[in-house]
Amino acid sequence: MAVFVYMGQLSATVADYLMTSMDEISRHDVETIEGSLSDSYARLESVADRLEVYDVETVAEAQEQLNLEAASSPLFNAVYLLADNGDLYSSSLVRLGADQHGYDELFSDGRERFVMLYEEELGRLETTKESLVYGIRIPAIDLGDMRFVALLGRTDLSSIRDQLLIESFGGKGVSSVVDSSGYYVVGSSAATDLAGRDNFYDMLEAGSIEGGVTVDDIRRNIADGRNFVVYCTNGAGERLVLSFAPVEGTAWSFIMAVPMEVFDRRVAPFVTMTAGMLAAVVLALAAMMLVLFRYMKRSVQAQAEASARTEFLSNMSHEIRTPLNGIIGLNHLMERHLGDEAAMEGYVRKLGKSVNYLLSLVNDILDVSKLQAGKVELAEAPFNLAAAIGDVCDMQREAMDEKGIRFHLHRSLPHPWLVGDEVRISQVFVNILSNAVKFTPEGGSITFEASQAEGPDGKVRCDIAISDTGCGMTAEFQKRIFDTFSQERHTTSESQKGTGLGMAISQLLTCQMGGTISVESEVGKGSRFSVSIPLAVAPAGVVRLQEAGAAAVAQALEAGDGRLDEGAAPQVEKAPAGDRPFAVLVAEDNELNTEILTSILSEEGYAVTAAENGQAALEAFAASSEGHFLAVLMDAQMPVMDGYDAARAIRALPRPDAAAVTIFACTASTFAEDRARALEAGMDDFLAKPLNVPVMLQKLGALREGGRHEQ
Amino acid sequence: MNNRGLLSRAMTRRSALGLFGAAALGVSGALALPGCSRGATRSAQPTRLLVKVPRTGHDVVFDDSINEVSQVITAMARAFEQASPTPVQLEVEVFEQNGYDSAIVNCFDTDRAVDILYGDYFNMSTYIHTGRVVPLDDVVSPAVRNDIYDLLWDLSTIEGRVYMMPYLSRQNVLAYNKELMRQAGLERFIRDGVIQSWSIQEWDEVLDALAANLPEGTYPMMMYAAISQGDTHIMTLLRSQGSPFFNDEGRFCLSRPEGIAALRKLQEGVARGWWPPHAENLEIEDCSSLFRNGQLAIYMLNNASVSRYGDSVGLVNFPGGVDGDGCATMFVSGFEVFDSGSPEKVQLAKDFLSFVYNSSQWLDYSAGTLPASKAVSQRHGNAIPYYDLFQSNSGHVVDFTGSNPDTRAVREVFHQVIRDLLKGNVSPEEAAFRLDEQCNRAIDEGVRTSTLHT
């Protein structure tokens, strides 16, 4: 609405501007014409002045003189002397009696001068062409018995029309001058003959005038010498704006005719500009709104993130303190019941659970932190999805069997060999499947479906759906299930206890892999998690190689960072005693850890040599006899010399067992890059802290049984 | 329906609607023409032809509604549009007599280029030499050729091909004011019902008597040289001493004794008071006004304009001629077809002319002055004022064009030399030399640059 009002006002302003332009042009043209008329009068006066100077005594002599004046005049085709008795004598020697013309009557009202379009009705002069007749009253000239009182001049209109015809508005606007009869004094008409001249009123009659104005109104206004404007349509259907202005000293009206099209065209650029400006303003506003929106979104997001961080820290604190509290409490109880073996056994068992929980919690927290920080680098390696699923299911098989859960696995995987991060993908499946196991009551069922479809960019979209007949989730919780520390605590069952980070990790991992994860659930009926991950198909050559070494790969995977193994720790068997104890070099700057390790290993029949830093470990190894140490457990971060340098130094020793001895990195830095760094330093394997004792013993046992450790 | 009967009624009634009745008549007549099919399909976009006509007064003996020749051309155009089997639309544009250049030459190769021009041969002949005017021999059927006076075909033909179609002509002779002749004691020269031919001596006698006896402000004979308009009459006066004006090659030959003698007469006439004072500053319009106002005894009239003066004037041929028995001039008007680059338009333009020249009705509309058609002359000669008088004088007609390919260039030279002669700035010999030299140069240039459409 505002735009239309604005456009209307703009059009009106432009129209006013054009009308002002028309006025200015009209004034200029009228001044030009009036100036031309004044010049013509002045020329006639000069002729009169010269007549007085010439020594003419007869009318014939005067006519001959006028003949020469006309011949030499650039303006007049003929000049006439008007006698007081009405006789008219021309420069072309024609003599008209008073009864043959009416030009003397033009002075009857006392006027001093006149100009008019030549009209044969007023007296036929020596032309048939359109002409102007000027007249001035002169001081009386007496020739014989004749007294001359006025001088007339006749000008062929075609000779001056071009000078007076002024175009404007790029040739569209045409100026003209009409006399009171409507005949053109100046106009675009090509007619130069009286018989062919056009009439302005005829043009008006052929068209129509707007606003109820009649031709007679215009005729009257012109006769009254008024300035006015009319809008009309001519006979050709062209709409015109006509501006009228009187020419002083005449009965003429100057007319500026401008087609409405000119107005429209003049307005059009403004309309375009205005539209452009409006569009620019809208765009600018939109951009500002967008910036504002993004800023606010960022602000809200930042607030949310801050809030989430706070909540996360609070949750983390709570979650960590809870098992710690249990550990502290158990510690207290154990101190008080040292002698009660039965009670101690219970406390120790509970202590183990708390510790394991705390470990998984720390692992998950670290995963979430790295995922949220975008610092998790996904591996791009060939793997067998079908096998990975099988492994995941196998891990949960025992738990499902314990609860009598019916498990259904449907795999339709035309492309089992894919390229991706098998560990992380398996982690997602484990999280979901373990949840399903947790929340599915005894006798329930779980269905694992895996299928593939064509995905984007030539990849395969792997669709995994894990359905259970568990307790289900409320709609409200479904919205938060992928948030950190989200657990629907409708139960306090120990068996259902978790960190509340598994699904958050699953979602973050899935997203990072370019996939999606969603859940459909109904309280009391169960849940269905759907995971969709696009993965590239492994090249055929790679597949053959992998299939050939599938067992080795599976073994290698199993020997990863150990996390996957945590839920299914291998059975620990005591190391068989040999002829001599296998020696293990433990490089650890923490005395307690050294003591614990020493105790554990000693109990397992290993001879432990402890070193408080890397330098000491290097020296101990160097000082040992060749082949003395079965393995080295090397802490990473130690004073004097860290574990990495120490490993390199050992490997660099000039003795055969320096390269052969198995060096385990034992560090709380458990990320992939830490693992890579350890391997790069020459270490053979990786044992994350806190140590998974059974795993450690199993690996050492394998060394003891098979010699050199193979990762 | 009898077309002739309708025409007769139109002639009898002399009504203002006569032309439109005749136009309708033309349609019905045209429908019977060979090649004009009533059942023609008219749904196609019509071909547009532009007909240009100078504003020219024209009377028709049987139709009082006609006062301009453009009315006749427009009616012909409308009738042809209806009759043509090919959809065609003719726009008739009227221009001023002094606007030939802007109407024709300046519009070449524009969307306002002329297709058909009706005008005076005097002006039209120049365009033939531009190569844009197509020959019309295929329009001139034996019947048409036989119906047009041979003299007019001669004026329409260049190098054996017809480039203009004559429609009518006007014959110019001199007219004298009987009253002024009487005042000068020249009653014996006044004769009614004839176009006299005075001898050189008689002319001298008449002019001297007029100069001596006319009252102050009244002059014996027309003379003017301010502009070129009307200069053909002055050219004709240069035949007064027996000069043929043009030699056999169509070049000026005024340097011969007869030509120089005629120029001398013009110059002597100033001193002898034959011409109005300072005639070099006068135009033909001035002389016309003087004659009309009774201030000029002898002036030029043609068979159409003489009737305005009724019994107050007598007629006499221009003095001299090769045989010394007086001269008359003739102005022919007719059609030209221009090649605008469209063979279709050229053919339609020719069809239009065929339509007109095979229609007795449209030829009849030339009956106001001297028709080019013998049949029209026969049908309407009795009704055309002074028809017999001027027709019988046709033997005195001289060709003032000399097949000049560039009449405008010649005219620019001619009036200025005459002006200098009248002012006494040049001798008759010098004037003759300048005229021959400059005018022939213009003619030669016109011939050199002439290109005829084939």
| CATH-assigned homologous superfamily of the largest domain in chain B | Periplasmic binding protein-like II
Mean pLDDT of chain A: 81
CATH topology of the largest domain in chain B: D-Maltodextrin-Binding Protein, domain 2
Determine the structural class of chain B based on helices, strands and strand pairing: alpha/beta
Q: In DSSP terms, counting alpha (H) and pi (I) runs of 4 or more, how many helices of chain B?
A: 18
What is the approximate shape of chain A?
rod-shaped
The number of E-state strands of chain A comes to 25
Question: How much strand of chain A?
Answer: 15-25%
Please give the radius of gyration of chain A in angstroms: 57 Å
- Find the CATH superfamily of the largest domain in chain A: Histidine kinase-like ATPase, C-terminal domain
Number of helices of chain A: 19
pLDDT < 50 runs, ≥5 residues of chain B: 1-42
Please indicate the count of domains of chain A: 4
Can you offer a commentary on this structure?
The complex is a heterodimer of chains A (711) and B (454). Chain A is α+β, with helices and mostly antiparallel strands and 711 residues long. Chain A folds into four domains: 2-157, PAS domain (Beta-Lactamase, 2-Layer Sandwich), CATH 3.30.450; 161-263, 2-Layer Sandwich (Beta-Lactamase), CATH 3.30.450.20; 378-558, Histidine kinase-like ATPase, C-terminal domain (Heat Shock Protein 90), CATH 3.30.565.10; 582-706, 3-Layer(aba) Sandwich (Rossmann fold), CATH 3.40.50. In chain A, 47% of the residues lie in helices and 22% in strands. Chain A is built from 19 helices and 25 strands. In chain A, a hairpin with a 2-residue loop joins strand 5 and strand 6. Chain A is rod-shaped. The two termini of chain A are 78 Å apart. In chain A, 34% of the residues are buried. Chain B folds into two domains: 3-169 and 332-388, Periplasmic binding protein-like II (D-Maltodextrin-Binding Protein, domain 2, 3-Layer(aba) Sandwich); 171-330 and 399-449, 3-Layer(aba) Sandwich (D-Maltodextrin-Binding Protein, domain 2), CATH 3.40.190.10. In chain B, a hairpin with a 2-residue loop joins strand 4 (157-158) and strand 5 (161-162). In chain B, 41% of the residues lie in helices and 15% in strands. Chain B is globular and about 70 Å long. In chain B, helix 1 (3-13) packs antiparallel against helix 2 (18-30) and helix 2 runs parallel beside helix 3 (69-83). Chain B is of the alpha/beta class and 454 residues long. Chain B starts with a helix and ends in a 5-residue tail after the last helix. In chain B, strands 1, 2, 3, 6, 7, 8, 9, 10, 11, 12 and 13 form an eleven-stranded mixed β-sheet that branches. A two-stranded antiparallel sheet of chain B has the order 4-5. In chain B, 52% of the residues are buried. Chain B has helices at 3-13, 18-30, 69-83, 100-103, 121-128, 142-147, 150-156, 178-183, 200-213, 231-237, 257-271, 284-292, 343-357, 360-364, 374-380, 387-392, 407-423, 428-449; strands spanning 47-54, 88-95, 116-120, 157-158, 161-162, 165-177, 195-196, 219-221, 296-302, 313-316, 328-337, 370-371, 397-398. Residues 1-42 of chain B have low confidence and may be disordered. Chain B has 18 helices and 13 strands. The A-B interface holds A 58-60, 63-64, 67-68, 70-71, 78, 90-96, 100, 124-128, 158, 190-193, 195-196 and B 55, 57, 68, 94-99, 102, 216-217, 219, 226, 276-278, 280-283, 285-286, 288-290, 292-293, 295. Chain A: The chain crosses the membrane at residues 270-293. Chain A: Keywords: Kinase, Membrane, Phosphoprotein, Transferase, Transmembrane, Transmembrane helix, Two-component regulatory system. Chain A: One of its GO terms (molecular function) is phosphorelay sensor kinase activity.
